[in-house]
Specification:
Length: about 280
């Protein structure tokens, strides 16, 4: 494997950080703004009953469930993730809360998006959400996703453009410090991924590539923290510590300043972030 960020090695990070990361996935999944992004992505896939679909980097596996609804009992859903822990958790949730019989069966499998365990042209539709930003070789992954898509099939990539992150209600100087510190951390190495999806898909040979940038808006710290985790007190420290810090004392001061400013902004805090949904056809 060739990944770089903590989400690229979920099973290896300390338990406290892993719990924070799974908690983040859980909160994001139920956040109305992420649900809005997912509706755009699902519409873009144009699924039909009977389709075979792949969700690559499936996390806790909830998107696979909505794919199973869309493709119906004659369809098939494969959901793959490198994390054994997340795949086991997704499988457990499916066992505890099975889908109605008129839905497609879902298979959760451990697998790497840069080396997928599927033959060429296996799927009618393929999606990959907020995974490429964590990889050292995202173009290898995109090529692999194109490989497993059938000719004429659709491929939808969803990823964040962290550099689009903007705030109202925080001092400019503090936001500048956040950018200078975080953007140079290895944990944010894929921070511009969203806006690069179009060119990556085109380079990988996909045709009719369409972009839908979705701009998310959050009011207050709690609302934002469901998606922009580091707005929350404590999470910024964890993120900075996970990124091989050069000056932990300076990071502690910065994190304290950040937490104080976020608390004092309260409901005046406005957070804006763009997530890109980009779809192409395999020729
Ligand atoms: C931010 S999470 C997004 C999960 C899910 N797509 C979602 O939207 O909730 C990133 C996911 O990518 C998975 N991942 C990271 N590197 C991967 C790889 N090389 N192949 C497959 N999955 C990978 C992680 O284990 C994690 O579940």
């Amino acid at each position: 494997m060739t990944e770089t960020t903590t989400f690229a090695r979920v099973d290896e990070v300390p338990a406290g950080l892993r719990d924070a990361m799974t908690g983040y996935l859980e909160r994001a999944a139920t956040h109305p703004e992420i649900q809005r992004v997912r509706r755009v992505a699902q519409d873009a896939l144009e699924l039909r009953p009977g389709n075979r679909v792949l969700d690559a980097g499936c996390g806790l596996g909830e998107v696979a469930r909505s794919l199973a609804v869309a493709v119906g009992a004659r369809g098939e859903v494969d959901a793959v993730d490198t994390s054994r822990l997340l795949v086991d958790e997704a499988s457990r949730r499916l066992r505890d809360d099975p889908l109605p019989v008129d839905r497609a069966a879902i298979r959760y499998t451990v697998g790497d998006v840069v080396d997928l365990p599927f033959d060429d042209a296996t799927f009618d539709a393929v999606r990959c959400e907020r995974v490429l930003q964590h990889l050292a070789e995202p173009d290898r992954a995109v090529a692999e996703l194109v490989r497993v898509t059938a000719p004429g099939g659709r491929l939808t990539l969803v990823d964040t453009d962290w550099e689009s992150l903007a705030f109202d209600g925080l001092p400019d100087e503090l936001v500048g410090r956040l950018r200078r510190r975080l953007w140079h951390s290895p944990v944010m190495s894929g921070r511009s991924m969203g806006r690069t999806l179009r060119s990556r898909l085109i380079r990988a040979g996909a045709g009719e590539v369409r972009c839908e940038p979705v701009t998310l808006c959050f009011t207050g710290p709690e609302d934002a923290a469901g998606v922009v985790g580091f707005v929350e007190p404590g999470t910024l420290e964890m993120l900075l510590a996970a990124g091989a810090p050069v000056d932990p004392a300076a990071d502690a001061v910065f994190a304290a300043d950040w937490a104080a400013a976020v608390a004092s902004a309260g409901s005046d805090l406005l957070t804006v972030l763009t997530i890109w949904v980009v779809t192409g056809l395999r020729g």
